[in-house]
Amino acid sequence: MDTPQAICMVRDAEGIRPLMPDERGRVAGFFLFGEGFGDMICLLPAVQKTAEQLTKRLDVWTRRPEVFANHPLLNPIRSDDKALTAYFSENDRLLIVSPVEFEGLPNRNQTHIVEQPARGIVDLQPKDKEVRLHTTDADRQRAAELLRPLENRSKVVVHPNRSWEIRTWPSDHWRQLTLGLLELGAQVVVVGSEVPNIGTTEQNIPKGVFGLGIDHPSLLDLTDQTSLHELRDVIARCDLVITVDSGVLHVANCTDTHVLAIFTDIDPRFRTRFRDNQPNANTTVMHAPCEKQFCQSWHGSTGECIQPETKRMCCLPTVAQVLETAAGFLRDKG
Predict the structure, then answer these.
(1) Coil, helix or strand for 180?
(2) Across the strands, what pairs with 195?
(3) CATH superfamily label, 137-333
(4) pTM of whole model > 0.90?
(5) CA–CA separation, 241 vs 156, rounded Å?
(6) What's residue 206's pLDDT?
(7) Segments making up each domain of the chain, as ranges
């Protein structure tokens, strides 16, 4: 007689364990460990399809509940240990856990984060991987109001991200790029926000945006002025987004606006935008990690890196290269 195989990992009142085939009916939702907006946005397709497959509304326990808001089959709940203990004590509930670690693989294996939290319940096909934040009429109205000061011509979103060293393009690069875009006649919308550290992990350091120190009638500074969903609709109303691998990149992937993406330590295939079953839709990758730099861990922050050297930015594009690519896109767009 064959031994039943585990479907995925779940959490109950006793802890984390494998889910067995005859327990699928007990699944009440998800327990998501990630602290960043990007990881949570990556999980949206799997969480949404699981709810559709199980034909019931699922609770989603997460540190970033706003990512899962406004969906009719999802009930986002901010993670809280005390509340979670009470939740499990009420009945025989199980929550699918993501991410989990696999022996022999780098910690927080990225493929698992993006695609496999509910393996055995759902099978994500390319058509299922179209990530969409569910915005409201109020979000769309707010985005329109924020962009009202600009004229009806090309608008470029710039996200001068400040994060850990491996994912920070220098502040003077962002300033030079923005000045160059303005000289080309483009209108520039600066986005991003200060993101507080809500966890205790080393990798979740405080993040934010560089001040560019530019006063120009065609520059609109929207830093710290948008919610997650309002940001999505601001980006959707613009022509181009320029960002490094960041939460804003994932928000942009929820739109059809063209993205000019600068990658450092993560393989772009893990951050791709699917449209019409095709990866890298409406995306120009300005940089992908070289063999010396790339690995699937967080470079010693939550696991051991498979490369021994200190990880710093290398092989990055120059300001001139990014500006030339952006100018070419705007020129072709007309």
Answers:
(1) helix
(2) 207
(3) Glycogen Phosphorylase B; (3.40.50.2000)
(4) no
(5) 6
(6) 66
(7) 9-129, 137-333
